[in-house]
Structures are given as C-alpha cells and as structure tokens.
C-alpha cells in the first residue's frame, strides 16, 4: 500500500459534503498538492466549494504529513496532531476528538493510485459526512 512519498505530487479532488442539519449536499472540486519539505510532505488543497443557494466560494486547507514509525502522522498546519494513517492497510480508520464534536475518518486505498477519504463528524455543533475522492492529476 502507499507509503508517505507515494503521495508526493498533484491530485484532483472531488468532495461531497452531506450536511445532516441543513439537509443539503455541498460539492467541492479542486487540486491537492503534496510537496516535500525537510520533515515529510506539506498537503495543500485549493478549489471551489458550492453550497446550495449560495454563491460559489474559494476554499483551501493545509496540513502536514509526517512519517512516524510505521504510520503517517497527519498534523494541522501549526503542528498539532490531527490523526494517523497506517499505510500497511488497504482500509484505514482513525478518529479525532475536537470536543464537543467527534471526527471519524476512513481512508480507502483499495483502488490505488485512486483513493477515498471519508469523514463522519457528529456532535452538538456538527453533523455531516464528507466523502473525498482523489486521483492523480
């Protein structure tokens, strides 16, 4: 299965965000870049988010991906821990608690080099499922 350096390069993203509270589906299309730095990879994505009945808006995010033993540590841009990926598995599950909400993530690498990331987020402030499909650009 993919190792950290296998992600380096550019990927197309198609994301569907199913919002349980609002009862609608938002769509994101964009590009993710994994760029090497001294400690691993810097993940940055940029694209357009379309929410029903709203004007399209630019969206972006940046994360750090670091080799940490046998796993890949995914960190926020400021270095705080976010979650981990076990690259030896075809399907990886982890979670992140952002009190009072909980974030469960599943990575699916069974169709590598295409892959999927699913976030299920629930709590008193959030209720959505985000499904992101990545393919080489």
User: Count of DSSP E strands?
Assistant: 10
Helix content: under 10%
Number of domains: 1
Determine the CATH topology. Answer: Lipocalin
**Beta-strand percent range:** over 45%
One letter per element, helices H and strands E, the order comes to EEEEEEEEEE
> C-alpha Rg, in Å?
15 Å
Assembly type of the chains comes to: single chain
Structural shape: globular
Largest sheet: 10 strands, antiparallel
Low-confidence stretches: none
Strand-pairing-aware structural class: mainly beta
Average pLDDT, to the nearest integer?
95
Which CATH top level class fits? Mainly Beta
Number of helices: 0
> So, CATH architecture?
Beta Barrel
Strand order of the largest sheet: 6-5-4-3-2-1-10-9-8-7
Task: Give the termini distance in whole angstroms.
Answer: 19 Å
> What is the CATH superfamily label?
Calycin beta-barrel core domain
Overview features:
globular; 68% strand; ten-stranded antiparallel sheet; mainly beta; 137 residues; 0% helix; Lipocalin
Protein model, in words:
By secondary structure, this protein is mostly beta strands. The protein has a single domain, classed as Lipocalin (Beta Barrel), CATH 2.40.128.20. It has no helices and 10 strands. Strands 6-5-4-3-2-1-10-9-8-7 form a 10-stranded antiparallel β-sheet, with no helix packed on it. β2 and β3 form a beta hairpin. The two termini are 19 Å apart. The relative contact order is 0.21. The mean pLDDT is 95.
Explain the layout of strands and helices:
Blueprint: E1 9-19, E2 24-37, E3 40-50, E4 57-68, E5 71-76, E6 81-85, E7 91-98, E8 101-108, E9 115-122, E10 127-136
Antiparallel strand pairs: 1-2, 1-10, 2-3, 3-4, 4-5, 5-6, 7-8, 8-9, 9-10
